[in-house]
Amino acid sequence: MTGYFKTAILMAAMTALFMGVGYAIGGGAGLLIALAVAAGMNAFAYWNSDKAVLRMHNAQECNSQVHPDLQRLVHKLADDAGMPQPRVYVIDEDQPNAFATGRNPENAAVAATTGLLRRMSREEIAAVMAHELAHIRNYDTLIMTITATFAGAISMLANFALFFRGGRNQGAGGAIAMIAVMILAPLAAAVVQMAISRSREYEADRVGAEICGNPLWLASALEKIQGFASRIDFDRAEQNPQTAHMFIINPLHVHKRDKLFSTHPNTENRIAALVQLAQQNGIAHTAPRSRTGNPWG
Angle 84-288-108 (CA atoms, 0-180°, nearest 5)? Predict the structure, then answer.
């Protein structure tokens, strides 16, 4: 089963779950209301999600005065991949991490933390940003925005369950059914959202390795980021956990609930897949060069 086919199935499951919750709460009328709410929320998310998430993390756009080297690096990678050049942002956080956002390649942005720029070699930074460009080229940023919106809408509908049905004389069975909807529907939505996110990460690793030219650069970066992310707090991410699935490595670790539902596949498995890809391509295992090296030299 390809990553795209699996994602299509999971997206269909999310849509069916959303419609099912609407029908369970209000019958045919509830289903129509659910569809109307979903359409409105997705339209808003489609046009404004990138701006909202960049504001959440207080991202600063790169230019000739603000981290111009990162902007040049990302634009060079995009040019080599035949993609439109995205806007490039920096987030003032010590934890090394990065994400991509935007509804399509023509309206996209990538963001890296200052911790990533300080702690990674130039090759590793290139690999991380190539991974984010892969998300943009694969339209993963749009897919994840829609699934996050659906998940939020399902949770909202579930919270309205007793409001819609509570006043009707349905007996104990009806009340139990509504409580089940309130608890299980958001849980199911979270599981589907995690499955979609995990399936897209492996594909972005593969395509990102192609863009930067060496899977081992990305494998090295993932190993380092995972180590730092487990020790260094990312306060803005903890305050906005709904954005965790966007980062290359889960930025959350402070609260116990952060590990209940992981939005990312196991990092060791991702590294193993990249090492295998390098072996298939005949790339020898060498350490990334110094931070000031030239990955295209």
Answer: 20
Sequence-ordered list of residues with C-beta below 8 angstroms from that of 163, at least 6 positions apart, any chain: none
132 among known catalytic residues:
yes
Alpha carbon separation from 269 to 190, 276, 288 (Å, rounded): 22, 11, 20
pLDDT tens per residue, range 35-94:
777 677 667 767 877 888 898 899 999 999 999 999 999 999 999 999 999 999 999 999
CA pair distance 279, 285, nearest whole angstrom? 9
Out of 93, 123, 124, 132, the active site residue is 132
Nearest to 244 by CA among 208, 196, 191, 197: 197
Decide if 38 contacts 16 (C-beta within 8 A): no
Q: What residues contact residue 251 under an 8 Å CB cut-off, 6+ apart?
A: 95, 97, 229, 234, 237, 238, 244
Q: What would the pLDDT profile of 226-251 be if each residue is shown by its tens digit?
A: 999 989 999 888 887 777 888 999 89
| Nearest alpha-carbon partner for 115 in 226, 239, 228, 248 | 228
Contact 204, 21 (CB under 8 A): no
Question: In the predicted model, what is the mean pLDDT of residues 168-179?
Answer: 56
Could you read off the pLDDT of 186-214 as tens digits, one per residue?
666 666 666 667 778 999 999 999 999 99
Q: What distance in Å separates the CA atoms of residue 23 and residue 175, rounded to the nearest whole number?
A: 16
User: Among residues 15, 10, 12, 3, which one has the least CA distance to residue 192?
Assistant: 10
Amino acid type, 50: D
Backbone angles phi, psi at 72, to 5 degrees: -65, -40
CA 105 to chain centre: 16
Rounded to whole angstroms, how far apart are CA atoms 128 and 112? Answer: 9
